[in-house]
Amino acid sequence: MPKLDFDIITLGHGSGGLLTNKLLDSGVFHLFDNEQLQQRHDGAILELKGKTAFSTDSFVISPIFFPDSNIGELAVNGTVNDLAMCGAVPKYLSLSFILEEGLEMTDFWEILVSIKWAAEQAGVQIVTGDTKVVEKGKGDKIFINTSGVGQVHDNAKISLEHVRPGDKIIVSDSIATHGVAIMSVREGLEFETTIKSDTRCLNHTVTALLDNFGEDIHLLKDPTRGGLATVLNEIARDGNLGVDLNQKHLPIQKEVSALCELLGLDPLYVANEGIFMAVVKAEIAEKVVDKLRKIEHCSNAAIIGEVVENHINQVVITSAIGGKRVVSMLIGEQLPRIC
Amino acid sequence: MNNWHIHITGRVQGVGFRPYVYRLAAKQKLNGIVYNDLNGVHIEFLASKEVAIPFYKKLIEAAPTLAKITGHELYEMDDRSFEGFQILQKKEAKTAAMMLPPDFAICKNCRKEVLNNSNRRGYYSFITCTECGPRYSLIKKLPFERECIAMDDFKMCPTCGEEYSNPKDRRYHSQTNSCSDCGVRLSLMNNLREEIEPDSKLVIKKVVALWKEGKIVAIKGIGGYLLTCDASNAETIKILRKRKHRPSKPFACMYPNASYAEQELIISATESKSLTGEVAPIVLLRLKKKQASIALNDVAPGLDQIGVMLPYTPLYELLLQAYGKPIIATSANLSNASIVFEDIKVFSELAGIWDYVLSNDREIVTSQDDSVLRFSSIKKQPILIRRSRGLAPNYFGPISNCESNTILAMGASQKSVFGLLFQSLFYLSQYLGDLAFFESTESYKRTLRHFMNLLNCQPEVILVDMHPNYYSTEYGKQLATTHGAKLVSIQHHYAHFAAILSEHELQTKPEEVLGVIWDGTGYGDDGNIWGGEFLTFESGMINRLAHLSYVPVILGDKMALEPRISALAHSWENTKAMDILKEKFSEQEWKIYRKILAKGQSTKTSSMGRLFDAVACLLGIMDTQTYEGEAALQLETLAQRYFEQSNKVEETSYVSQISYIEEVPVNEIIEGVVKDLKYGVGINQIAYQFHYSLVKMIENVALTTNNEKIAFSGGVFQNALLVDLVQQFLGDKFELYFHREVSPNDENIALGQLAYYQTTKRDEISK
Ligand SMILES: [Fe+3]
Ligand SMILES: [Mg+2]
Ligand SMILES: [Zn+2]
Ligand SMILES: [Zn+2]
What we know:
The complex is a heterodimer. Chain A has nine helices and 13 strands. Chain A is α+β, with helices and mostly antiparallel strands.
């Protein structure tokens, strides 16, 4: 961290005046230094070829720090992964902060460093940005927005329209890990085993899949908020299709599963980071899984179900003991239904 | 001589009505016709006024026992001539407004015939007549004629055909008529789907032998398959429990006959009448002594009552007669999903649960479970637990303020039932299973489609529960979009209250009514989970007067599955209770759950079901339950034991507060229970005092509000002891209203939704 003559964020840091410049000059610009930023334009001037994907994401999470990661990394990966799910190779990001007066500069710096690291991992450049400061109590430490553009892969034909009955549903790694990690910190629940959040960029993995399997990858989804259940229900509802899942095949870490049980959570509804779900042509499903398993952080990739033509609009899971349950689209929180 | 027309509506088809009319007309030597159409039964005849009016009167008065007449009229018509008296088939009306006959239990005459070896139908497992046999489960379309039911593939042999067309025969115009020459064929198969006994007379013997060997046989009955085995064989029952993943939920038993049942069970006249009637439901009964011929501990672990039924089909009659001992007979399904009725699914989904299958080649069009009924022990108040075979799908209660609209009420979720108002008739479907299960959603949707096809109607208004995550709500929304229907969501407990109000036509009366609506879970309009509700009905409006004080909802649905969590949520600030509870949790659970509670939860509950769970857990009855209501049922059982064993029942209540505004405190109940436990008061006594306290609570609230009428609804009132105590202690002081036609549990939500929509001022509910 550079030496600064302040250790907390004040309203002045968002005024656009001297303090703002001080903050940006000494820290941010230096940290993210690249050709675009050096131009000091009001915006970035980019050169893009072919089909371009564009996405945005805002991050208002609590806590902002959690096992092994923080909101900064999440903010980069969020937009990077949204672009990846479009079959695009992310190139440039914008980065905007809304800081709450009183945020510790050390915390802010740690977040900035994470952002830099995450951007490097994903191979994206931060080319424009903004910082505002709000009065204490008007925010929650830090809100981040990122937007990004990326070039769509030549082989990509990602669309719900291409999903057909018979297609297989794959997840790239164990589910529910992130949500449980966040919860353990937020609720102040000290678990004996520390479950680490697994946020990471997925674009390289996606690119590898598209290089190999191209248009046989029919759909990619990032099952973040609302978990797998929500994205699967969206597919069933919007695609007028049915989805069958098999509980036995859901990859989930033992500790995560035990904690879900302990907390009465259905892992299908728990938020994920760092994994994606793919709907692929049946013939390549095994190969996709084999390929994924060789990639770091995808060692638990599995076929978890398939798209079907019966029970349109419904996601149905076959439990380990054979009963079939409806995985409904949750509206709001997980409210009790049992009498 | 004038030409007269009689039109009769109600349950008048499939109950031998036309043959009855024919015989009566023939006796009087009348010329005319009788025919069914979609609006009921019509009779046209020539007679003088002096003959016509007494004939009309007699016709209505002496109607067949299975018939239920809801409307009738006589009027004059233009002249026409008839030759003799004839039964005709006519289908003119485009829309149906008729009751659907339910499936009737075997009648006395048919029972005699089937057991008589020299009768032409001796040992024919599908004997029926105009007074008995399946109806609703066979109906493909209307009216109830041979070609419209699942017997259409069976062509009557000449002898059966002769019976069918002989006015003197008791099978005259019996649509289900058949015999072993022309009728339904049994097939007994092993798990490779190979028929192992082609001779149908030997099939009965073979099944009996299999039961003796301790085998589990899936039998295709009226509304679906039942899993059966010897009820005295503890080992087999354990195997069945294991295969079905049903550790302790009680199994129903089928006894060979009424006199056998009377030897082992305490059966009142009311109960006996119910067991042997045309509905022949499962009735919950007490065993006389421990040495019964069933393995009680495995049939109904921890309970003093078992569900008992008598053979209600000729097949069961033959099987049980040959076996001479009670059998287990439980719906073939996985968990609480709907009963399996398709042959193919028995071999796929249920493979591994049964050892042999006794099937037949008659299609089950509409699936149904067996109805379940219990009676409170003192007042013999009937309490429907499940309204299904023999009772569904007609609703005979009053339907006030009939709109001409077609209204579909989607009901709740765990005990799914839908209701359909069409042409001023209200159909209330059979219990269709827990909508958390896929099979139940299929059966719910299939039955709903079937109804709309049968009646040829489209809903104009769709009523749903407010719970955003009920499947019935979600599906109701979809249907509203498809049909362009108006969608109205109705609060769960308001619907319960409206249901009981409508059963007794209380909404039409000026007096205020207090509603005691107690259940496990219902979504409240404040976003909390309601369940211990005191509502009022006044000037056409339902309002929430008071409720059990809120406790935090933690761990989602897990809370309802584990009474220990309810106990914790109710008493985490009570150190004495915490001493009792600590050992019921792992160290990690204890730490985490208390932290969650200390943090404060945004969602809260006033559930009476959870209070029962909490008390049951504190008393050490159970920490986690394996079926809905298990802890409450065990608590009732212990309280009932105390109630019966002590000659002088002390009137000690844990409830001290006299007047209530809004919140009825539950902590004094928890404190009282815990204190008594510390003093060493017996568990049975505490369980009883808890029940008594609830009665006191009701009395106090009723006195505060000056209500004379109290109406009860919600799953908690399946508790027969509570019903007895309420009647015993409050019966003289108040007018009490309990459900009769429908169950107090969520099966009545569909009825309640309709009643609420029709009769309650509801400017605020449309969403
Ligand atoms: Fe309810
Ligand atoms: Mg986004
Ligand atoms: Zn009969
Ligand atoms: Zn015949």
